[in-house]
Each structure stands twice: as structure tokens, then as C-alpha cells.
User: Fold this.
Amino acid sequence: MASLNKIAAEINKCKKCSLHEDRTNAVPGEGDPKADLLFIGEGPGKKEDELGRPFIGPAGKLLEELLGTIDLTRKDVFIANVVKCRPPGNRDPLPEEVEACWPYLQQQVNAINPKLIVLLGRHSLDRFLPNMKISTTRGKPMRREVENLGRYVFYPIYHPAAALHNPNNRQPLMEDFQRIPTVLKEVAKLPEKDAAEAEIEDDVDEPEEKQARLEL
Ligand code: SF4
Assistant:
């Protein structure tokens, strides 16, 4: 399995999609390589592009505040993005850009092997659990098998930027964050194989029903 440093080195010289053309720096991600918690956002913004580090702008400041409320710092977790180079003007990443960058994220997830993957916002949710809405899945931990990745527990929550843009999202984000320590404890109790696995594979077309049944 590739080390995180090796993956980062590949990302830094990557030209697999057009996002490399405008980048100042690629942003591979950073944090504890053995973290229990992996946070995955959408893509780098202006400040992140300038410094090559994830979540260091206003949304990053809020993320750090939220981590502080559960007695963690960014050094205790790993923070990455779905795409590693900044989309021009902070536009949404295109599907082909997300797919071009996917092998790096896949390798990072497998190298870290986190207990819980916190999906920050709809783009992150969509890459791992397609056809689900962030508004209805937020705050619901789900164990899923993802093709070419493996079986992990995912916890979708609002992106911190969504809470900055819309104050109505702030309270739900706070509440979902406060549940993270409890969710981690529940994940630790899960057997390697459990009865839920069959349900996970069977009801891919019924996301809302699935969420309710598999809530940890
Ligand atoms: S976004 Fe990903 S795939 Fe595209 S150039 Fe950057 S590292 Fe490579």
C-alpha cells in the first residue's frame, strides 16, 4: 500500500485533469496518518491553493472550532478533499475531474484506514454514496461497501462553508459534530461482519429507508 507521502508526491506533480493548469499548489491533505477520523471536503479554495494546505480559510477556521468542541485539533484527524487542485473561481468540480482524482483519494482512505469517514457536504457525499441528499442523510452514520475502496462507516454532515453561507445550517452542523465521539464509540463495537451487510447491498434504491434501518 502506498504511503501518504508517496501519494502526496504523485498528487503534487499530477496533470491528469485540467485543474492542474491553474493551480498554484496541489493540496493533497494533511493530518495524522493513522487517524480514526478522516474528513473529506470538496476541493481547495483560494487560500488552500496558495499554501498547499486543506481547510485553512474561513471554512477551515470553523472546522477547527468544531473540532475543538469535541476536544480534538486538526493534528488528531486527517483532512482531505475530493479534488486536490482548486477549481477556477471556486466552481463545483466537474464529474470528470472528480473521477480523475478519485484514485488518490481511494489510496489515501486505504492507507489511513479510518474508523469513520466524515463526508463534508454534497460533493463528498456524492462521490462515496451517490444519489443521496445531504439534507436527509446528514447526521446519519452508514456502513457501506464502496466499489474499489472497501467497507467503511460514513458520516455525512454539512460542509462548514454551507454553515457560513447559510446561518440555518450552523446548528445542524454543530449538533452532528457533537455526535462524532458517540458514533466513533458505536463504530468500535461493530463486528467485522454483521447482519446489516445484506441490507446494505440490497436496498441501494431506497436510500431513506436504508438510512433509518442502518443508523448506528
Ligand atoms: S485535481 Fe486531481 S487529477 Fe486533477 S490535476 Fe489535480 S491531482 Fe491531478
Notes: The CA atoms of residues 41 and 81 lie 4 Å apart.
